[in-house]
Amino acid sequence: MMKYAASRMLLALPTILISLFMIFFMIRLIPGDPAQIILGDVDDAGALQRIRAELGLDKPLIVQFLLWLRAISGGDFGRSIALDSPVGDLLFSSFSVTALLVIPAVAIAGLLSVPAGMFSAWRQNTHTDAAVVTAATAFLSIPSFWLGLIVMLVFGVKLDLLPVVGYVSPFDDFGEGIRYLIMPVMTLALVETGVFVRLVRSSTIEVKGLEYITHARAKGLPELLVARRHAFPNVMGPTWTMMGLALGGLLGGAVVIETVFSLPGLGRLMVEAVFARDYPVIQGCMVVIVMSYVFMNLVFELTAPIICPAVRYS
Amino acid sequence: RGGDTVDSSSNRNFLVTLSSDIRSTNPGVNRDANTDTVMMHIVEGLVAYREDGTPGLLLAESMEVSDDGLAYLFKLRDGLKFHNGAPVTSAEVVWSWRRYLDPATGWTCLSDFDGTNGNRIEEVRAVDRLKVLFRLNRPQPLFLSQMAAINCGAGAILHPSSVDAQGHWRTPVATGPYRLVEWKRGDFIHLEAFPGYVPRMEPRNGNTGAKRALEKHLTFLVIRDAASRLAALDKGQVDIMPEVPAAEIRQIGHIKRVRLVSAPMLGSYGILVQNQDPLLADGRIREAIALAIDRDALANIVNEGTAVGNPSIVADASVFHPPASILGGKPDLERSRALLREAGYDGSPIVLSTNRRYPAMFNQALLVQAMCRQVGLNIRIEVLEWAAQMDRWRAGKFQLLSFGFSARADAAASYSFILGNRARSPSKVWDNPKALALLEQSLRTGDEERRHELFNQLHLLMLKDVPYIGLFSPADINAVREDVDGFESWMFGRARYWGVHRVREGAR
Amino acid sequence: MKKTNLVVGGSIIVIVFAAALIGAIGTPYDPTQIDAADRLAPPSWSHWFGCDEWGRDVFSRTLSGAAITVAIAGLTTLLATGAGTIVGVSAGFLGGWLDKAVVAVMDALLAFPALVLAIAMTTLLSGASLAPVIALSVAYVPYVVRVVRTGVLTIRQADYITASSIMGNSAAYTLARHVAPNVVGLVTVISTAIFGWALLAESALSFLGLGLPPPAASWGGMLSDSRNYFADAPWLAVVPGLAISFSLLGVNLLGDGCRDLLDPRMERA
Amino acid sequence: MAPGSPILRVDRLQVSTLAGRRIVDDVSFDMLSGEIVALVGESGSGKTTIGRAILRLLPNGLACTGGDIALRGESLTATPPRELRKIRGGSIAAVFQDPMASLNPSLKVGRQMMEALRLHEDVDAHEARLRCLAMLERVRIENPQRCFDDYPGKFSGGMRQRFMLASVLLTHPAVLIADEPTTALDAIVRREIMEQAVELTREVGTAILLVSHDLGMVAQYAERSVVLKGGRVMDQGDARQVLLQPRVDYTRTLLDAFPERALAGGGSTRRSPLVRVRNIDVAFRKSRKSILSRKEYVRAVRDVSFDIRSGEILAVVGESGSGKSTVGKALVDLYKPSRGEILFANGIERSGGGKGGARTRPQVQMIFQDAGGSLDPRMTIKQAVAEPLRAGGIAAAAERLRRAKDMLAEVGLGDDMHDCYPHQLSGGQRQRVGIARAIVGGGDLIVADEPVSALDVSIQRQILDLLKQLHSAYGLTYLFISHDLDVVEELADRVMVMQRGCLVEIGSRDAVFDDPRHPYTRALLEATPRIRRVAPSRYALASLTNRHADPPSGHRFDVPAAEPPEHAVERACMVEVADDHFVRCIPSVECGGTAGSREEADSEDLP
Ligand SMILES: Nc1ncnc2c1ncn2[C@@H]1O[C@H](COP(=O)(O)OP(=O)(O)OP(=O)(O)O)[C@@H](O)[C@H]1O
Ligand SMILES: Nc1ncnc2c1ncn2[C@@H]1O[C@H](COP(=O)(O)OP(=O)(O)OP(=O)(O)O)[C@@H](O)[C@H]1O
Ligand SMILES: [Mg+2]
Ligand SMILES: [Mg+2]
């Protein structure tokens, strides 16, 4: 088990290195000079040189890359250019925000969609089924930023039920923090539900055609038990890994929602860093994004056999 | 709803919005506009801008200038304290200024004081416990103005404990009416009134005068997203929302119990014209563009009626703004078309580069395009990302560039944005020897009358050469909840929250 | 069930494409024509969907927006699926170090959320008019490659490939004659998916201010501009929002339809 | 309950599709407690459907439209669902065909076994467990404890079917519906399972409804059998009577469709070898658990030597996984032998040990078990058959198509079909296309890997006839791989028997079938009851003639080890026990060793 995990990590290593390499050089190809942005509308070659030197941007690229690799392998992500603070701290705070947004959202989506999906699959080709599928399709057809906008204006402004301003960390003030998270989490959850329900449904349809389900019935099990005990784990197999992927992707890719609800999350941090050409922050974000993606997949892959023992042998 | 917000909020911090997080707490070193706004509450310099943009004394009680204009002797007010309780003496002044003048510090405005642009501080010396002497390499009429410059951190006087042993920045230990309590990245900056603060006698005036922290707790909420900023204001979660983008004025109109406080600002928005470009090398085409634009209409739309057109690079608010008689800049489509015909313009596209980060720059570009279309000028808009546009600007690689200059106290500073030796810095679009000479003179003399004269000449010259098509000078617009008293907006646009406070229901 | 998906989705897509066509050919008003007089004019007979903050006709902008969005999504789909299929098929069929290399690079790309990658790419190509297309294509190629490659790997196991090699056919011939035709099904399905993603992502990019350079109308762009005028002019947000959702719905239904239609064949392969 | 009164009565049962098509039409039969009733009939005759109907578990799309099913006199068609659930798994249990699919991969074996028990009798977990373990013992599962607490995933089909049997019999059901319970299993395992099933049901007194198309098995085990055709009962009564002295034509045709030995003796005539296979090994890399673990190999074929004589049909039989297909694939150059060599008459040599493959490929073609899978779904059958000609060097496409059409005509596919796609054809027709494709190029040797095992009896017959006809017409040479002894017995000139990757016995068909020596061969033959015609419409169950077989002097029979250590030295060698009849033995006294005895084997192979 642990050995397996270790070897999988080893396998992931090149992936991570390649992606970091790509991103490192890509962002440096982007036109725009962080030093000049710091200077603003002042045109002063001397000052520019000084700042670039300070930022270590005057060294040859490959040297910069190797220095950076050595640094991060030692856990040091450097200092932000634009925000003049340790990138590590920035990453930690913003990642925690994103995590608080994404993990509950995916969890909720999962809790909603597994029963819904299995139910509609069990009722295949009935009106219930059609209704569920249509609803799901509709959900994943609504762009999250629009949904977010509407939700915000209805519940936040018009009905004045929930706060719309940015963010209060639940760690500082739990109750308040939750209230701030409700809308973004719900928006994200709805969209993801759309995706999951369809997945769960299709894999349920596959499973329920199999012989062991018929056999479970032949044993005289009531439908509910057949669904819960015999279908559920096998349906969860594919769903679980899918959720892992979704989670891994969203942890880095929730930019839009974060923008709509102005959450200081990882995506926002990175997009703004890109605009500000804040190389260390961009790189840091990329490390976190890639890591969380790889790690999430690994975690879900390793836990899959617990959820669905079948995958252990397949 | 207003009522209960006040009740619920009567005991909370005084909350104001900030459109983006501050860069650092290191005044004049790692900064942007928002950083300046916050820091102006924490730090103070020897001098500071008054309401009219001229420098006045702040920490200094008095100042003597030698007849040759080379020596400035400041006398500090007695009994001033740093936020750590230490008394303010000449020693800290000398320390602070030597720090600024040390290239290692990376002070934004170093080049104005180290001779790069001709002006240099020869030495900073403590004369006695309260007296400090500055000696200059030559008479510098703008010396005080530059000391007070907000983007330079207003020459903040800091206690040495602001930096650590290696000289790295720790935290501002300064003399302002507020002191820094907590800065939560990307979230908020929390200040509290500094009990040991000693206000000046005379009434509040610009960044100087009596600065009283009426609200004990002042919190800058970082809300990057415009929509949520407004929502916050709407729901009374913040008391003041400064720097309202023109686009949001309309919405604020809908919000109850909120009023707009605005004033014309220094700074100028316009189009930079690259006359090195083969097509635009032809003065007639440049002028044709200028003539095609109806500045007042444009200013009106872009600013939702809060600003008027201004063909000069010098803001209306500035004392040096050209008189109406020579201001010019009226649209004349006929003449514009005629010029184009003369120049034999064949409708080949002219690229106008702009960005989305600053809506005003973006919108003015859209309108310029639309207006030029009427005279048959084919303008293509190219939207760059701000960082990319800055590159283009510095390299002078553009045909037309939609641009806005931040507030500068002195007209000379405004002109030096565009006027200069192109060989040395390609960002300069105006390299006319005559103009350069005029600018140089304006920097040499301190005589108001003479300077007015020089700037008017410069303006006329600019209208002729059209290196820059001034469009308008923006207004500083602030949304203030009605239960807030004492807020005033001004030409520098950097909101000031001292002397501001919430009136409790009872008091109404 | 199957048929309805195909029909409904298909007709929606047809409508959208028709709109795009009209938008490309000619709209009632010039979608970029600024008119101070009509600023934020509510829907009326002269302006069906009203006007935006510049007095531009929203109906016309929606149409030309359709043209742009469809064009970008379409080009992206072509580019991504084209490149992805070539890479995926050759990697999956030839195997060996080539396959390893491809997989490594694709995994690396896959580790970034598509949108993040697209953002980085668009800024990289800042200003270029095709920036979104290229950016999105780069972002989606890995997905195509992954699907096609696994498809090819399963096809390779099939007896008819064995048979082909027993006949003494060259690898190239087998690839062209037996493998390629049988991934077509897969490619169609994934390409509908990508069209949908691209459509959404394009709007998202514009929403973040990274879309096509204005004044060109784009749904995402219209949506993000509309936010300041929600109270005054809700239609500015509603119209493009509905447009996006509507087209996405179409794409998704169509995708389901295709999948249902092609599934048996895919299972056999 | 009065003896003789049926425990289950199916009375004029009718099942139809929603469209109204009758799947089961007026089927009636009784089952007495403890007896085995067989439903026989070709595929599609409605056997499974009847079984499902009794459980009231018809697939949606089918409905019971008439008749009645009564358990101990009480009608099941009327009972409400919850009552029905009590009966299912309680009084009526079921075992389905595919053991791989009928156990839930995500639930522990024990859990699944206890499920029914605890549902129908109130026993606590502990007792249930004990009873399960006891039952597992009964079906001869060594180490029941471990199996009980393990997931089904890694058990073989035989094991799983044992689990199924054990778990359904736990509740002492009155009726057990066994739908093709052993079809997916190897002969020997099949035998064991059936024996156990019968034995157990005798004790428990359960009646078995045995659904099967294996008439031999039915004849051996069933008391009574019901012959179905298109959902109608053709004949029913005492199993042996019905099957061995058939009264109705349909049964006769069914029986005649069965393969049987051509009385004209097999290929005893010596012909020159077309291919010589010499001590080949084929090894496969095991998929590694993790990149940290070292590479491991399975030797799928171990030190196998034999000849294929031109014009003969050499059959390969053996249990599943014994390496039959691997040998075949090695011959068509899909797998490279890791050791040994394959020599072709025309001098081409393929040898292991990395010496690379053939430069010019001899005409070896292949016929696959899954004809559908072996045809490109996007090619018309005409194109498919034309394809080998292209590689065969016929440039003109028109010419190729013409030849293809001729060939298709020859295998009995008319012009109207030539432009069909594979999925439009029936299984039999697809196999015809496969055959056409294999021989159109004019191959010398054709490797046929289970060409008929996927087909229904009557179709099987047609294909076999076709193969025979083409064999004589074109003088082809077949390597005929099959685990179906009936088919082999009919077709083969010579037979080679494989076990665990080794060749254990090879000889002429008659020798191997009538005088098998190697224990494994004998077990195999004993395990497969075969129906033989003794006189027109008179049949008998074939059984092994001479009871004992002694190893050749100075040797003992060698049974290959299951998991031989890599590169183990093979001490065993093929010893000629009769004319042209070799068996795998180990010299008990150290004789000349492998080399010597192989020499003698070789010497008389050479012309
Ligand atoms: N769900 C269904 N819908 C419609 N027709 C069906 C369905 N299931 C089976 N049939 C038809 O019922 C007939 C009998 O099927 P059944 O499986 O009972 O035959 P069988 O004797 O079990 O065949 P085999 O020996 O291949 O198992 C077949 O013609 C089949 O086409
Ligand atoms: N491509 C392969 N990779 C790895 N192992 C293989 C491969 N092909 C066959 N084997 C192994 O070689 C052994 C023999 O397989 P083979 O298919 O030749 O047996 P078989 O006699 O054809 O069985 P069946 O009667 O089920 O077809 C089996 O243990 C199988 O697991
Ligand atoms: Mg059946
Ligand atoms: Mg095989």
Short description:
The complex is a heterotetramer of chains A (314), B (508), C (269) and D (607). Chain A is an all-alpha fold and 314 residues long.
Structure notes:
The complex is a heterotetramer of chains A (314), B (508), C (269) and D (607). By secondary structure, chain A is mostly helical. The radius of gyration of chain A is 24 Å and the shape is globular. Chain A contains 14 helices and no strands. By secondary structure, chain B is of the alpha+beta class. Chain B is built from 15 helices and 20 strands. In chain B, 54% of the residues are buried. Mean pLDDT of chain C is 84; it is low at 264-269. Chains in contact: A-B, A-C, A-D, B-C, C-D. Chains A and B meet through helix 2, helix 3, helix 5, helix 7 and helix 12 of A and helix 5 and helix 12 of B. The structure holds adenosine-5'-triphosphate (2 copies) and magnesium ion (2 copies). One magnesium ion (MG) is lined by residues 324-325, 449 of chain D.
Q: What order do the helices and strands come in, and which of them pair?
A:
The complex is a heterotetramer of chains A (314), B (508), C (269) and D (607).
Chain B (H helix, E strand, L loop, with lengths): L1 H8 L4 E5 L14 H7 L7 E3 L5 E3 L2 E6 L5 E6 L13 H12 L19 E6 L4 E6 L6 H6 L29 E7 L3 E6 L23 E6 L3 H9 L5 E2 L4 H9 L3 E7 L3 E6 L9 H10 L2 H8 L21 H4 L5 H11 L6 E6 L3 H16 L4 E6 L1 H10 L4 E6 L5 H8 L14 H12 L3 H18 L2 E5 L2 E7 L2 E2 L15 E2 L6
Parallel strand pairs in B: 1-10, 14-15, 14-16
Antiparallel strand pairs in B: 2-3, 4-5, 5-7, 6-7, 8-9, 9-10, 11-18, 12-18, 13-16, 13-17, 19-20
Helix pairs in contact in B: 7-10, 14-15
Chain C lengths: L1 H24 L32 H37 L1 H15 L3 H11 L6 H27 L1 H8 L4 H37 L11 H8 L8 H34 L1
Helix pairs in contact in C: 1-2, 1-9, 2-3, 2-5, 2-7, 3-5, 4-5, 5-7, 6-7, 7-8, 7-9, 8-9
Chain D lengths: L7 E10 L4 E10 L4 E5 L6 H9 L6 E10 L2 E2 L5 H7 L4 E4 L3 H4 L6 H12 L4 H14 L5 H5 L8 H13 L5 E5 L7 H18 L2 E5 L3 H7 L2 E6 L2 E7 H6 L4 H8 L16 E13 L11 E13 L3 E6 L5 H8 L7 E6 L4 E3 L12 E4 L13 H11 L5 H14 L16 H14 L4 E5 L7 H18 L2 E5 L3 H7 L2 E6 L2 E7 H6 L4 H9 L2 E6 L2 E5 L12 E3 L15 E6 L2 E7 L5 H13 L2
Parallel strand pairs in D: 3-8, 3-9, 6-7, 7-8, 13-18, 13-19, 16-17, 17-18
Antiparallel strand pairs in D: 1-2, 1-4, 4-5, 9-10, 11-12, 11-14, 14-15, 19-20, 20-25, 21-22, 23-25, 24-25
One magnesium ion binds next to helix 1 of chain D.
- Gross morphology of chain D is globular
Mean pLDDT of chain D equals 82
Let me know the number of strands of chain C: 0
Mean pLDDT of chain C: 84
Helix count from the secondary structure assignment of chain C? 9
Strand content of chain C: under 5%
Order of helices and strands of chain C: HHHHHHHHH
> Mind summarizing the main beta sheet of chain C?
none
